[in-house]
Amino acid sequence: MLTIVPTPIGNMRDITLRALDALKDADCIACEDTRHSGRLLQHFEIKKPLLSFHEHSTENKRVEILDRLGRGENVALISDAGMPLISDPGFDLVRAALERGIKVEVLPGAQAAVTALVASGLAPDAFAFLGFLPQKAQKRKKEIERVSGYEETLIFYESPYRLAKSLADLFEVLGNREAAVARELTKKFEEVARGTLAQLLEKFSKREAKGEIVIVVAGAGRKKLYSAKQEDEEDQSEL
Predict the structure, then answer these.
(1) Would residue 172 be called left, alpha or beta, if left means φ above 0 and alpha means ψ between -120 and 50 degrees?
(2) Which among 9, 30, 211, 234 is placed 20 to 30 Å from 20, CA to CA?
(3) What global pTM score does this model have?
C-alpha cells in the first residue's frame, strides 16, 4: 500500500497520531529531502529506510518505488511540509500506483493553504488554490489577469524574496482588494497580516519577509457569490 502522509508545516505537534502510526508501519519512506525528513523521524524516534523522491528524481526512482509496492511493501510518501502532491512531487507516482491496482491511502493533516485561508478572515465558502505564482513578472501578471474574474477567494504560495513584487502585481491587476499574507504558520514567529493589497504592499516593501508564505486575496464579486448561494438555499427550502 502507498500511504500519503502529511507532515507538520511548522510546529512538530501538527502531526497526527495516524500519521505517526503510518510512518512506523511503513517498510520505507519516500521523501523530498532525506536530511530534513530524517530530523522529523528522529524527533519522533522512528527508524525507517528513507528513499529520496523529489521533482528532479529520475523515472528509475519512481519505478523502484512501484516495484517495492508491487512486492507487497508498505511505502509512505511525505513531503518536506504539509500534504504531499500539493505544490510538491508525487502526482505521477500516485497515478501510476492507481493504474497498477495498488491501494493508495491518503491521511488528513496539516496544510498551509487552508490554514491561511481560515486565518485570513476572507470568505472561505469557495476558494481557488493556485500554487506558486510564476517567477517572471510578465508571466506572473498574465496568470493574475487570468484569474482576475474568479469569484472565489484566491490562494497563492510565494517565496519571501518575491513577496513585494507579487503584491505589487496583484494590486496593479486586481485593484485594492482585501487580502492577507500568512507566513511561518504554526511556528514560533507566525504572522498573519490582514488589510488591503495596498496596505500589505506598503508593509512588506519596508521589511524583508522570511519563511514560508501564503497570499490570500478576496475574489471578484463576492456578494454575487453569496447571493447565488443564498438563492440556492431558498430554492431548496421551498422544495
Answers:
(1) alpha
(2) 211
(3) 0.86
